[in-house]
Amino acid sequence: MFRTAGDAASANQLAEEHFTWAQKTARTFAAKYNVDPDDAESAAMEALIDATRSYAPERGPFRGYAYRLIQHKILDDTARPRQVQHDHTATTVAVERTRRALADDSRFNEFLDALTDPTDRTIIDNHYRGKMQITDIAILLGLTVTECSRRHTAALERLRRFLS
Fold it and tell me: In b/e form, how buried is each residue of 33-43, taking b as 16+ CB within 10 angstroms?
């Protein structure tokens, strides 16, 4: 955080120097994740401002630091499907179909059965059997990437307890 007017002026200068770069980064993400370019640019500008206010040189190069913040902000703000409503019945059917196809892995099936939340089952099943990325699973389920990642981590912790 900035403690003096000089620090705030440095943050403003950093933001001005990286404004065009942040716009280009937003357009790249908008195309990659099929989100509205204006929404992506708005999220990128917010993240750029946050980055300039919280950046410290020991965090490494500014662009690398800002890029991570921009990426997370765009995904969290825009990656929710606008017209997709999650259907737990479809999720259950998909899990069952995958389970039948991979029936020889009974220990994994036992763990999936132990997960009571169908969303958690879908995250684990699609990530490890379906080889889907967390970002894609989040979009599929209508979650933010952060929420999907948090649920994945919690489910893995339950798996560790299950296996011990």
Answer: bebeeeebbbb
Share of the chain above pLDDT 90, in %: 7
Is this structure's pTM higher than 0.70? no
Question: Phi and psi dihedrals of 142, rounded to 5?
Answer: 75, 30
158 and 92 fall within a common domain: yes
Cβ distance 59 to 30 under 8 Å? no
User: Which DSSP state fits 137?
Assistant: H
Examine residue 139 and state whether it is found in any structural domain, yes or no: yes
Distance of CA 90 to the CA centre of its chain: 23
Residues 14 and 72 in one domain: yes
Full residue range of the structural domain in which residue 45 is found: 5-78
**Domains contained in the chain, number:** 2
| Segment 153-161 long-range contacts (CB within 8 Å, at least 24 positions apart) | 154/120, 155/115, 155/120, 155/123, 155/124, 156/124, 158/114, 158/115, 159/111, 159/124
Reported as a pLDDT band with limits 50, 70 and 90, residue 9 is confident
Domain assignment present for 100? yes
